[in-house]
Specification:
single chain; mainly alpha; two-stranded antiparallel ribbon; 2 strands; 65% helix
């Protein structure tokens, strides 16, 4: 009985030591943090760390779209012809090309809603994510005269459309 109490007492001491160590570490870090804020350079570093948007290195804003494209590319219940932009368009035309792909995604979505496709949610996600990303660029968007309208591209089947869409998005992620 006595050894059991000693064992429990030992556990409590270890726990207390841990708490004391954490508290001392907290005080140490806290004091250095406030010292950092006492000078101009420290304030600049603080504001840069606190307010600069954090983006993961190598993260692409189209990553979610790529995931959903992978989900739908093997779908057998989507059978449509879609205007498919060229994957090797001039870089000036990259945004209109992407807009065209997302416009055609709306056609896929409508087809899926009519036919009750198994991948309807994935198609909806592509359309929503694409429009959300494109909306933020809308104010700066002017289509150069040399860029084609969506309807000027060749119509291709669903599989070819998705392959081209993936290439264009991957190309955009590399920039």
């Amino acid at each position: 009985m006595c050894s059991r109490q000693e064992n429990n007492l030992s556990k409590h001491k270890t726990h207390l030591k841990s708490i004391c160590l954490q508290y001392q570490l907290y005080l140490l870090l806290n004091s250095h943090f406030f010292c950092l804020l006492k000078n101009e350079r420290g304030l600049i570093i603080f504001f840069l760390c606190a307010y600069v948007p954090k983006t993961a290195a190598g993260h692409c804003k189209w990553a979610e779209v790529l995931k959903d494209l992978e989900q739908i590319k093997t779908s057998k219940d989507i059978d449509v012809s879609l205007y498919t932009a060229d994957t090797d368009e001039d870089t000036e035309c990259q945004e209109p090309v992407i807009r065209c792909f997302f416009l055609e995604t709306k056609v896929i979505l409508q087809e899926c809603l009519i036919k009750k496709c198994t991948k309807t949610q994935d198609v909806l996600n592509i359309w929503k994510n694409g429009n959300a990303s494109l909306e933020t660029n809308k104010l700066n968007s002017t289509t150069p005269a040399k860029c084609k309208e969506c309807e000027e591209y060749e119509e291709k089947n669903f599989t070819e459309f998705i392959q081209s869409f993936v290439k264009v998005i991957q190309k955009e992620c590399k920039h």
